[in-house]
Amino acid sequence: MSSYRFDRIIERLQALGRKPKIRGDKATSLAPCHDDKKPSFGVTRDPDGSASLKCFAGCNFKAIVAALGLRAGDRIGRPSTSHAEGQPSPEKSAQKPNVYRQARLAEQSILKRLGADWSLAANYSYESTDRKCLMRMLRFERPRAGSKPEKTFRPIHPVEGGWIVGDPPGLLPLYRLPKLLSAPASASVVVVEGEKTANALVDIEIDPVTTWSHGAGDVERTDWSWCAGKHAVFLPDNDAPSREAGAKLASILARLDPPATLHILELPDLVNEKDDAVEFIATRRMQGKSTAAIRQEILDLAAAAPAVGSESPDDEACTSDGRDPDDEPEPRSNASNTTTAPKASSQQSRTPAWPSLDPKVWYGLARDFVLLVAPHTDADPAALYFSFLAAFGVVVGPRLHFTVGATRHALNIFILLIGATARARKGTALAWVEALFKLAIPDWPKLVLSGLVSGEGLIESIRDPLTQDRPIKDDSGRVTEYQEVTVDKGVSDKRILVVETEFARVLAACAREGNTLGPIIRDLFDGRLLRSLARKNNNLRATEPHGGILAHCTDDELRSIVRPEDIHGGTINRFLIVCARRTRKLAIPTRPSADEWTALANRVRTAIDWARQQSSTNSREEPARAAELTFDSDAEALWCASYDSLTGDASGKYGAATARSDALAWRLAAVFAATDRSLKIRRHHVRAALEAWAYCDASARILFPEGHRIESEDDRRRGRLIAWIGTQPERQTTARQLARNGPKELRAAGAAEAALQELVNLNLASWFNVDRSRACRLCDAGDGRQIAGIAVVDKQASPVEASQEAPAARSESINRASNGHTATDGPNQTGFQLISDDDRAANYLKH
Fold first, then answer.
1. How far apart are the C-alpha atoms of 421 and 553, rounded to whole Å?
2. Cross-strand partners of 141
3. What is the pLDDT of residue 836?
4. Lowest-pLDDT range, 49-58, 198-207, 386-395, 468-477?
5. 653 and 707 in contact (C-beta within 8 Å)?
6. Residues 816/662, Cβ–Cβ less than 8 Å
7. CA distances from 248 to 173, 197, 218 (A)
8. Is pLDDT above 50 for 298?
9. Sign of the torsion angle spanned by Cα atoms 755, 757, 762, 763
10. CA dihedral sign of residues 64, 68, 69, 72
11. SS3 of the chain: helix, strand, coil, percent, to 5
């Protein structure tokens, strides 16, 4: 029997990731003091609440207590005290704690108790506001085969005459407190778990950064009053105890006077349990990113991190501008090295960074539709605007087109509306569009369908006539000839608008093995022959299809289900991504006057009839040339001036999702020209298209943050190797050390040497001789030249860094080219300069 509390031991096992399983008064877990594949550690609750501990591998009691990090306050009948394990117990009041004249002697005393295989790895100083040392946290490590070194921590603190092993009395200080207090009042405080992680962020010039001592389980023992009134961002480790510590920290900060707000940032691409910012930085360096690029990525992610408890307790509450707080996104950060607190309202809520579509740049019938409907609905004007364009592009049919080189483009466009379920009012926007087009064209219901589950089903909805040759027999029964007979009249109207309010189902169908939906969707966008060779009866086909897709999805759902093949294979980048949210709360929506509604429907019908009458055939031969849209000279000049920035390179998911920017902007300009019943695409059509594309570009940037690259398994393996080497002294290792203690996949004969040589070949590391053997040392950030054939890294800006700047630069260049002068109104929330185009802006506000 031990004197330690059963519940405290379970908490420590959970904090160490040993996965305890409780059955009544007994629990089993992986052993805390050695590596386990199967549980070999048992805990039994005794009648007084204490616990009996048993390691079936033979570890002694002192080793178990040391591995669990138990303290005197964890004992039965004892209040929590400031004494660490190894410090004399207050129960023996007559026995005074040992006072060591020097800190070095206290370290040696701890090492003697831990054992010969332990060594001091780091010494972290906790200071007061006047920079006097209040406590030192000593990190001890010992080698552990096949994984990271085993670690344990011991505090020491100064007293009169020397040093004592254990915590100082009272609440424990914050790490790097003087730096925290010297930071600007508007700076956000970055909080991490562990001093090593804090120092890693400081090394890449992110500050102020702080942490607490003793790990996830002891966050409540720290004096957090210095954070009162501040914005804090917590970066948890990749494990459950660290996330639980974040919840406790949020509660503590909320009780301060004035209260502090906490935002939780879970870093992406943390592969293994307990990975943290150290591994994140190492992985990004492996990808060839410079320190500046890594810092900016973390700052951007921090600015977009959600706040703990940010939801309003009143579900019907709105923000000060009338928007629904459930629909509010989080902002992006600025480029400063200091994490600046976002602007706060009286309730300390962040100003959302959301793409802006200025009404001055709305155009044509779509603009008039939005201006007529917007006062009567809480749907997002952007959702109304783009939904109208998708519907109009379909109903005009395939006869209007433009040609780029040898490629023919019709006016059909795909729209993907992204917003919260129910709250974003995506369906409300669709309902208004359907109401208008039902009034404008009688055959509208025949053009709309939903339920995409297979490519064959899509082809079936606009299939060609099916004929068969049937034999004609004479009186004797002999076949004399064959007669062509129509067995299926097919569908003569090849126009189709697919409305998918659950786009995730479409992506799930595309992911099923053997499903042809993905390629058929891409061919529908391109206007190619739709045909599935997977069907036994391959006579099912659809020639010259003209279809659009209007899809709805939530951002979380899309990120969770979208595959690399969907993004990089050309499916997602055929869609205009449009972020949508409810603009206000309207208890009783109204309708426009009947006269205004009918007048707008008549104008839409007139434009559709004009487009449909441009030729008398659907063929792409001679008669269709009369319906070809072309640029006039002014439009061509604007397009050429904008083209380089419009098609600038961008990396990762964001770059792949916006790779078809020029084709989509072309189609938007053509749709705007068609609403004007013009075969000439004019300058104001191009400008309206570029502004619409800027909104979609910003939406894609929110959905897929720039610079986030989809990593291959080789990338992840290389990242694990670099992260491991980064934990070694001097960031170096030999092949023998790597094979003995490194990641498991490198323990095969020759694998460690080959892996290190690969890093050298990529200029991520270099060989050097030490003690008659050869060691491999990681290069500093920026020394690499080629990373897996993906990026070239130099001390100057790399292509990866340049591509991270592409979105804002691209959009600003578009607007500068389209305006012909410098913006003076300042950037809007997306960072795009949206200003009027001379006298044409006034024309945008006219019918």
1. 8
2. 119, 151
3. 32
4. 49-58
5. no
6. no
7. 17, 20, 10
8. yes
9. positive
10. negative
11. 40, 20, 40
**Cβ atoms of residues 416 and 702 within 8 Å:** no
61 exposure class (CB count in 10 Å sphere: 0-12, 13-18, 19+): exposed
- Secondary structure E strands in 554-694: 575-579, 630-631, 680-681
Q: Give the CA radius of gyration of the chain.
A: 33
CB of 330 within 8 A of CB of 353? Answer: yes
What H or E segment, with its residue span, contains residue 146? Answer: none
Residue that the structure tokens 């190619």 belong to: 528
Calpha distance 609→602 (Å, rounded): 10
Residue the block writes with tokens 């319906």: 627
Query: H-helix or E-strand containing 255?
Result: none
User: What does the block give as tokens for 73?
Assistant: 């306050």
Q: Provide DSSP, 263-279.
A: EE---TT--STT--HHH
Q: Measured between alpha carbons, how far is 711 from 158 in angstroms, rounded to an integer? A: 48
Q: Which residues of 546-580 are buried (b: 16+ CB within 10 A; e: fewer)?
A: bbbbbbbbbbeebeebbbeebbbebbbbbbbbbbb
Listed residue (645, 806, 800, 579) closest to 709, CA to CA: 800
Q: 504 — phi, psi (to 5°)?
A: -60, -35
Per the CB < 8 A criterion, the answer to whether 727 and 721 are in contact is no
Give the β-pairing of 231-235 and 479-488.
unpaired
- 666-722 pLDDT, tens digit per residue, is 999 999 999 999 999 999 999 999 999 989 988 888 888 654 434 456 667 777 888
Phi/psi at 769 (nearest 5 deg)? Answer: -90, 135
Beta strands (DSSP E) in 539-675 are: 541-542, 546-553, 575-579, 630-631
Cα–Cα distance, 679 to 566 (Å, whole number)? 34
Residue type, 142: R
At residue 325, the 3 state secondary structure works out as helix
Helices (H), 147-188: 177-182
> Alpha carbon of 315 to those of 311, 345, 581, 750, 785: distances in Å?
8, 19, 16, 61, 53
DSSP states along 499-552: EES-HHHHHHHHHSTT--HHHHHHHHHHTPPEE-TTSSSTT-EESS-EEEEEEE
Q: Tell me: pLDDT of 96 over 50.
A: yes
DSSP string, 65-125: HHHHT--GGGBTT----SPPTTSPPTTSTTSPPP-BSSHHHHHHHHHHHH-TT-EEEEEEE
Determine contact, residues 671/411, Cβ cutoff 8 Å. yes
Alpha-carbon dihedral sign for residues 740, 742, 747, 751 = negative
Q: Is 618 exposed, middle or buried (0-12, 13-18, 19+ CB in 10 A)?
A: middle
Is residue 801 pLDDT above 50, yes or no? Answer: no
422-479 confidence digits (pLDDT tens): 777 888 888 999 999 999 998 898 899 988 888 888 898 998 898 888 888 888 888 8
3-state secondary structure of 4: strand
List, for residues 270-284, the tens digit of each pLDDT value. 878 888 999 899 888
Q: For residue 520, how many C-alpha atoms fall within 13 Å in the half-sphere facing its CB?
A: 30
Residues 135, 126 contacting (CB under 8 angstroms): yes
Token representation of residue 768: 């050097």
